[in-house]
User: What shape does this take?
Amino acid sequence: MASHRRPKQPSRTRVTVLTATAAAAVALTSQAAQAAPSAKPSKDEVKSKVDKLYEEAEKATEKYNGAKEKQEKLEKQIGNLQDKVARGQDELNDLRGGLGSMASAQYRTGGIDPSVQLFLSADPDDYLDKASTLDQLSGQQVEALKKIQEKQRSLSQQRQEASDKLGDLADTRTELGKKKKEVQGKLGEAQKLLNTLTAQEKAALAEEDQRASRASERSALSSGKPASGFSGSAYGAAQSKIGSPYVYGASGPGSFDCSGLTSWAFAQAGVTIPRTSQAQANAGTRIYSQSDLQVGDLVIFYSDLHHVGFYAGGGQVLHAPRTGANVRYESINNMPYQFGVRI
Assistant: This one.
């Protein structure tokens, strides 16, 4: 008679091993899926990401320009204050010398007045606070003491102001370094993305860019008269720089960023405007309707006002666009228009 034994159940240990093995297989499969190379971004995807990085770099560039402008102003102010302090110290020394001469004359004619002697050996501020002693001095001596006191107070204020500005300068230089690093970081990221493109893809992007630029140039040159006066002269100066490369922080004459071009161009017309696009946005009369723009008006873009160019007529702007591009004409609709500014 056949034996009907119950099938042997797998041991708990074997079940555990099998379960662990299955889990490991699932994990390895998942890791392999994660490690599989992702699809290479298309040319258009790379361009979109690069354009975004260039926009972020330009935002940082305008902040860099603002910090740089502040640094230059502070350095000039500190230099002027230091000159004032040096001149003031010379004047104070002369005043003290004059009072010393009075004391010498008094000594030769019978001794130094006790009040003058006290001044020469103590703080004149403390001395002048003791009004009861003033009647012991001649009018000339009182006047000399008051001048010395005023000069000392003025020098003290100027030294404190210079010290405060030196502190501001140190903070501004730190900010400048941070903004420079931020710009360079964004540009570095953009370059890495561009390096993923093939030579053929890079050539295709360049050709698209050139085609758009040529079309904008034809449109701008065939419409509108340059503005008269300062704006016309500034616009003409900017036209002479078509083809110059964009370089962040540059304000000519060989390379420019956006606000560097506009500030340089107006300087050629004998007009000083602020260095940054945000400050240039407040440098004249605002024009909100594009239909009211005249050739040579400044045009401000983006909600944070970080880009500026010249209106060139026919719905075109003349500007320094971004890293990797030269000063050129471009459609005003390529960027979010905010308003124009008539200087």
Summary: Strands lie at 285-287, 298-301, 307-313, 316-319, 328-331, 337-342. Residues 43-108 form the longest helix (66 residues). Confidence is low (pLDDT under 50) at residues 12-29, 131-135.
